[in-house]
Design a protein that fits this description.
This protein is α/β, with parallel strands linked by helices. The chain has a six-stranded mixed sheet with strand order 2-1-3-10-4-11, with helices on both faces. Strands 7-6-8-5-9 form a five-stranded mixed sheet. α3 (about 60-75) crosses α10 (about 275-290) and α5 packs across α12 (about 310-335). The termini are far apart. The protein has two domains: about 45-140 and about 265-335, 3-Layer(aba) Sandwich (D-Maltodextrin-Binding Protein, domain 2), CATH 3.40.190.150; about 140-255, 3-Layer(aba) Sandwich (D-Maltodextrin-Binding Protein, domain 2). Helices cover about 45% and strands about 15% of the residues. It has twelve helices and eleven strands.
Length: about 350
């Protein structure tokens, strides 16, 4: 029965049934109008933007830069809330359980969304169904860096040196199952050489690489670009399919004989499942506009992040591909969360 098409006869009206029908129809219409009005008026109060990692990291830096612009455009504060723990799972699960009203969002990355579902046993969320992709902010390639003591100026020389010294080289990572770890794992397998993985927790990995106790590493460009520019580390290749705008002189791994090699980081906005589509579309348009602001775009590129953008549908398709890719790589590596 449709409220807009049902006819009320004289007997119904006199008996009061008609009034009940009109009341019911009015109620349904009011509910629908109220929902639309709430979506159109969003945001009417501050918005919490969860970052599932500590302050100062790449996720946090990008989230703060874009959220500041969102606050200016949408006339409400976008407040960063750092909730680190369990490789990003803690903050991600918090947002999964949050009300789907547009007032809790998360800027997330490849780990919690594409790697952790395989890395962790019995994860309590499904990234493909429990969160709604809004927009990708940026891609951040990993860069293969070596300590200057390694006698290799190019990727070809590095591979030759590694094969000539099986088991001698050590590579570090920011943790088991991170893209830093899995990028190096992929290279050793496809490059056909043995090296020892030394996992760290966070920034300590870079400290030992700089000290020469570790020979090579895949790291996000923002975390090492200053050391590359200062000559303290030597870049050999980036892990993206195309060259990074931050390091255009550095070739890709794919260019050096490993077609299809892609193992970088990426960052973007997500919302709890059920968030109104009007909110998703408003955010998508705003972020796409923001990352094209020349000053912000230049700042992101200088820090090693290539602005991305696109539609929610494109982001969802990208997430599906990443999930499938990393599921295979994690299983092949045998990595399990500690």
């Amino acid at each position: 029965m449709s409220c807009t098409t049902r006819l009320i006869n004289r007997r119904q009206w006199l008996s009061g049934t008609g009034a009940q029908v009109i009341g019911a129809c009015t109620g349904v219409g009011a509910i629908a109008w109220s929902g639309a009005a709430r979506a159109q008026s969003w945001p009417a109060k501050p918005v919490r933007v969860v970052v599932a990692f500590t302050a100062g990291g790449t996720t946090d830096i990008l989230a703060r830069a874009v959220s500041q612009q969102l606050a200016e455009r949408l006339k409400q504060p976008f407040v960063i809330d750092n909730k680190p723990g369990a490789g990003g799972n803690l903050g991600t699960e918090m947002v999964v359980r949050a009300p789907a009203d547009g007032y809790t969002l998360i800027v997330n990355s490849v780990g919690p969304m594409a790697v952790n579902p395989t890395l962790y046993d019995k994860l309590s969320y499904n990234p493909l169904t429990d969160l709604v992709p809004i927009v990708q902010i940026a891609e951040v390639p990993n860069v293969l860096i070596v300590h200057p003591s390694v006698p290799a100026q190019t990727m070809e020389e590095f591979l030759a040196h590694a094969k000539a010294n099986p088991g001698v080289l050590n590579y570090c990572s920011t943790g088991i199952g991170t893209s830093s770890h899995l990028s190096s794992f992929m290279l050793t397998k496809r490059g056909g050489f043995d090296a020892t993985h030394v996992p760290y927790k966070g920034a300590d990995a870079l400290k030992d690489l700089l000290a020469g106790r570790i020979q090579f590493m895949f790291a996000t460009i923002p975390s090492v670009v200053q050391h590359i520019n200062a000559g303290r580390l030597r870049p050999l290749a980036v892990s993206s399919l195309k060259r990074s705008r931050a390091l255009p002189q550095v070739p890709t791994v794919a260019e050096k004989g490993f077609p299809g090699f892609e193992a970088g980081s990426w960052f973007g906005f997500f919302a709890p499942k059920g968030t109104p589509d009007a909110v998703i579309q408003t955010l998508n348009k705003a972020v796409n506009d923001i990352i094209q602001i020349p000053a912000l775009e230049q700042q992101m590129v200088a820090q090693g992040a290539d602005p991305a953008g696109g539609t929610p549908q494109q982001y969802a398709q990208f997430l599906q591909r990443e999930y499938e890719k990393w599921r295979v790589i994690v299983r092949d590596s045998g990595a399990k969360a500690e």
